[in-house]
Design brief:
One of its GO terms (cellular component) is Cul4A-RING E3 ubiquitin ligase complex. One of its GO terms (biological process) is transcription-coupled nucleotide-excision repair. This is DNA excision repair protein ERCC-8. InterPro entries: Rad28/ERCC8/Ckn1/ATCSA-1 (IPR042238), WD40/YVTN_repeat-like_dom_sf (IPR015943), WD40_repeat_dom_sf (IPR036322), WD40_rpt (IPR001680). Helix content is 0%, strand content 38%. The chain contains no helices and 23 strands. The chain has a 5-stranded antiparallel β-sheet with strand order 9-10-11-14-15, with no helix packed on it.
Length: 316
């Protein structure tokens, strides 16, 4: 293997497939690439093996991931608000594009008019059983508004299509009718959450926690821009989401943490304070039942949360 692979564009995100047994490709999202939105790198030869061209606007892709249920499916999210599904065996064009408008008569293939978010896609993650995709990105006409969206990808929730290679059946996910509310990232002010009836109010976390302080100044001023972040999905109740497993979500939301439960019957949400600057990533430790969050304030927090219950009151 080589030590360095040079690309012609800035890299927004990288991802490895957790289900593949036939390849070791590294999916790379490119920002403002001239002719491609992403490349698949082969670390053995030290060069791109495949290029995913088109689909997104000239601003490129903001994030990328592999499907946990298919070793050949890559999903890209763009600064243009589009989420595209690609089959690496037929990479000439995406085979599916997510559309935020629920339309059962819409085309099951990729459409240049389909938009998943009205702003940049900042993160997405699959539920633990791989049957739902949750995305985090722009909402509405306000460039400072963000929201979560839940998309189906189960075997009973899509219309089958085929690619031009070996007639491989693919799924075309649809938007689930789950209202998580909208986050308004007010410049120079704290975030506000507008939530539908039955949602939990914004509150400061009362969970016990510990902090590991790294090098850096808490009072440093950082320009807040919409940059890709890493959200953490946590397994919920079996059968709680259209027969699939519900999922708890922990999403970096500027200097706060958005907690949400993605389920069919209810979608409680809560904003919690702990960091002093932008939160960039969340990771869940299943063995210890702990959530880790890190931010630009130089802190890493450990949240010992116990989520093997269905009550919405346990979201923080």
């Amino acid at each position: 293997c080589v030590d360095v692979v040079e690309l012609s564009a800035a890299i927004s995100w990288i991802a490895l497939s957790e289900s593949s047994t036939t390849h070791n490709l590294v999916a790379v999202a490119l920002r403002r690439a001239e002719h491609s939105c992403a490349v698949l790198l082969d670390p053995v030869i030290g060069a791109p093996a495949l290029t995913l061209a088109g689909g997104h606007s000239a601003t490129g892709s903001s994030t990328i991931t592999w499907s946990p249920r298919s070793a050949h499916t890559v999903i890209t999210g763009g600064h243009d608000g589009r989420i595209l599904y690609w089959d690496v065996r037929a990479p000439s064009k995406p085979f599916c594009s997510l559309d935020k408008y629920i339309n059962s008569d819409a085309s099951t293939t990729s459409s240049p008019e389909a938009v998943a978010h009205t702003g940049p896609v900042l993160s997405f993650a699959f539920s633990m059983d791989g049957l739902h995709l949750i995305s985090w990105g722009g909402a509405g006409s306000d460039e400072n508004a963000l929201c979560l969206r839940m998309w189906s990808s189960g075997p009973d929730d899509y219309t089958s299509t085929t690619t031009s290679l070996d007639h491989v059946p693919q799924c075309c996910p649809r938007l689930r009718p789950v209202n998580f509310g909208t986050i308004y990232m007010n410049p120079g002010a704290s975030e506000s959450l507008t939530h539908p009836v039955g949602q939990l109010p914004a509150a400061t976390s009362t969970s016990s926690h510990s902090a590991v302080r790294a090098l850096g100044l808490n009072g440093a001023q950082t320009r807040h821009t919409h940059t890709p972040v890493r959200m953490a999905p946590v397994e919920g109740v079996a059968g709680g989401a259209w027969g699939a497993q519900s999922v708890y979500l922990y999403v970096p939301c500027r200097s706060r943490l958005l907690m949400a439960l993605a389920a069919k019957q209810d979608a409680p949400t809560r904003l919690v304070n702990r960091h002093y600057d932008r939160v960039r990533a969340c990771v869940w430790n299943k063995r210890k039942q702990e959530l880790y969050s890190c931010g630009m304030d130089g802190n890493l927090f450990v949240w010992p949360l116990y989520l093997n219950i269905s009550s919405a009151d346990d979201l923080g």
